[in-house]
Structure formats: structure tokens, C-alpha cells
Amino acid sequence: MGHHYALRRYGVALLLPTILLVGMVTLYPFAFTRPWPANPIFELMTGLSHAFDMAQNIVLFIPLGMALRWFLAGCSVPLPGQRAGVILLSASVALGIEVAQLTIPGRTAALLDVVANTSGAALGAWWLAQPMLPLVERLGFWIHQGVRMTPAWVVFVGLAIWLAGSTWMVTRWQRATLPTTWSDRYTLQIGAADDGRRFWPGYVGFTALYNRAFTADDAQAVQTPGDAIARQPLFAYDFSELPPAGNGPFARPLVAQGRPTLTESGVGVGYQRWLMSSEPLRGVAAEIARTRAFTLVAQVAAREPDRTTEGLIVNFGRGIDGHNISLIQAGADLLVRMRLPLTRVADDRPPLRFADVFPDGQPRLLALSYDGAVARLFVDGQAHPQWYTFGPGEALINRWLPVQTHQIGGWTIALAGAICLPLALAGLPWRGGRWPPITIAVVGPLLISSAPWLVIAQSLSGGMLVASSATVLVGCTLAYWLTRSYSADDNL
What we know:
membrane, alpha+beta, 19% strand, transmembrane helix
């Protein structure tokens, strides 16, 4: 009985985090890029872009095969049944993943992946489960002995230091989502960059920038140039005349480049015709940094809603790579780039993409609102169904890996779980009782999830609380279960 109990224990302990890892890696809508050019012969023969894809799918399922083999052996399943069970269960998991990937953006389903995943599980079960078991048993025994000798108060102090440091880190990286790095050297451009590149053919009725985030009521109330000016913008321009009339404390005269045309829809720009402020809009950056929020409003009509190349509608920046805030047409979609401490200077990642904003050439009133955490778009006074919430996870990860639009929000949830993982140590039987460390483990998720609120109201805090609490609960349960009595044979 001790032999079977130990095998089931190891199998479940490895199975739970493995399933979680496999789910995150295979079902999250990551945007993959090829690390090197594809091998045409290999791709023709296998359907894969390169051998690295197959190697990843094999390695990913190796721990799953080991966990299933241990669990089935612990349930007294005979050896032929263990082998059949590993193949059937791992193939079922792999097939379910491929079916799910059919509906996930950025994912590509392939039956060959099922073969690779199942092969990896078989490799783990056949070649690694047996030799790894004595090592796992021995390592577990040493950890168990070390835990029995460590006073609970030492663990309490260590976890308290970790929790304090993690809370500081979350608040620090949350500040990286605030619009506090805008440049005072940038000009305002309408219809192209200041060097005449990336033209946008269309019409502009008016535009305005505010040092606060709009609500839905605000967006509905701003329908005309008069409405925009009445709500005290930092700058506003009415394009019903040429040159446009500027209003607001930071407005500067707009100078025509080429020959923009004046129509009933506003000023027509595009193809060697655009407008640019005569000098940088100095002072705007300091005002935005003071309030930590902004809203950019623009009434525009796309002349070519089906164009595939990007065109700069409103660009408060310099050139095509430097932006404080930019509205860009990309086909029927609106692409938004804004400068934050988390973004990269070169291309202001991550960009925000709002789908189907320009289905036709009719005028649209756009209001892009950002309160330091949540970016919302209002189209003709109505909230666009897409919105993005930035958190400390995006700011941290974007320093090494460019975050894609559909990943915004996911990295913060992952960060909350990762920094709460050490709190699961509270479930081990430390000498002198477990209650002091458990106290830290209980309050830890609450502190981590509420840390962004020290900087700005963060709607991701609820998800962070769920992720961190689940991490601590499952981790403590596994730690307690694994460190009970030890009695296992090292034969399968």
C-alpha cells in the first residue's frame, strides 16, 4: 500500500503543474515568429516549418508521460495497461488541444503535433519514469528532513521579505503604464509624419487632446468642434477652415504641407498633402504627466477604407517611429500607438488594434481614452467592444519580449501567480508549527493583487487575486500532501 500511495502521490504532484503548463503554452494566443528560416525540404516532407517545432512538442509532453505512468502504476494498473493508458490519455489531451487551437487567434492546428506530443509522453513514460523515481524519492526525503529541522519563524521572516519585495516590484512596474514619458519636442501632424512619409488619404473635421480620461458620457457629449473646445482641451483644431483655427493653452498654428483641400467633411489630406504644427507643442507632456491620463478626439473620414498600408491620421510625434500618441488606419482597423515607460522607444510597443473602425468612407468620431491602466475607444459616442488593460506584467515582460496586442492583460495574471508561488512553502511541516508562515500565505495574494491600486485603479486586480490565491492554495495542498509519511519502493 505504501508503494502504491507514493506512486500516486508523485504522479498527481507532477500531473497538476504539467497540465497547467501545457495549457498555458498551447492555448494562450501567443504570436509566434520563426527563429530561423524554414528548411524547404524538411517542410515539404513533414509539414513543419522547422525541426524546432517538433522538438518543442515532444519535450513539452515528456513530464506528462512520466506523471501518467506513475499515477497508473500507483493505481495497480498492470504494465500493458500503463503503456496503453499513457498513449490514449496523452493522445486525447493533444487532440483536444489541437481542436481548441482552431478557434484561438495566432494558433495553427496540425495532426502532426498530436503525433509529436504523444511521442514525447511515451518517451517520458518508457525512458524516464523508472530511472527518475529513485532520484525523486531521495530528493524528497532530503527536502523533508531539511523542512523538519527549519524553525517556522525563519520561514515566516523569509516569506515576509519576499512578499514585501514582490509588492514593491508590482507597484514599480505598474508605474511603467503611466503616460509620464511624453516628449515636449514633438509636433502635431495630420495626414502624415513630419517627414512626409506614411500618408493617410482622408478628411479631418476636428481634433482635440485632453488631460483626463473620458467616460462614455463625455464621449457622447463631444460631437462638434464647439463641444470639443467647451470641454477645455489642452489643444483643439477646427478644420472647417484652412488654415485651421487652434484653441487651448498649448495650440500652435498648423502649417500646410503640399496642398490640402477644404471640403464639407473638413480638410482633405494624403498623397503629398498634410498639416503640421509650426513648432513643438511644449507643455503638453508635463500636463499629461501631472494628471496621468489623456483622451485624444478626432473626427475623421477614411477616403480609402480598404487600403492595406498603414497611414498616420493624427500623429503627435516626430517621424514615423516616435510617438506621444498616434491614430493610424490599418485597413478597416484603427491602430493606436502611445508612448509609455513600458513601451520601446523604436516602435512604441505594444500597439493597440481596434477592429472594423473604418468599414466605409463615412465620417467617424473617435475618442481614445487612457487612464493610466485601461485604454478604451469610443466610436461615434459608443464604446468599442475591444479595450485593453495594462498591468505590471506587461511592463516587466516587454523589457525582454515584445508584448502583442492580444497578450495585454495575460502577463499580469501570470506574474501574480509566479510571485505568489513561493508562498506555497507555508504548506510544509516546518519545525515549531505552520501557522506563522500560513498567515503570510493567506494575506499574500491580497497584498499582491491590491499593490497596483497604490499607483492607479487597476481592473486586473480581481484576476490577479484569483490567480495568486489559486497558486497558493494548490501549492500548499501539494506541499502538505507530499511531505506526509515516506514509504515507497523504487520499482515500477
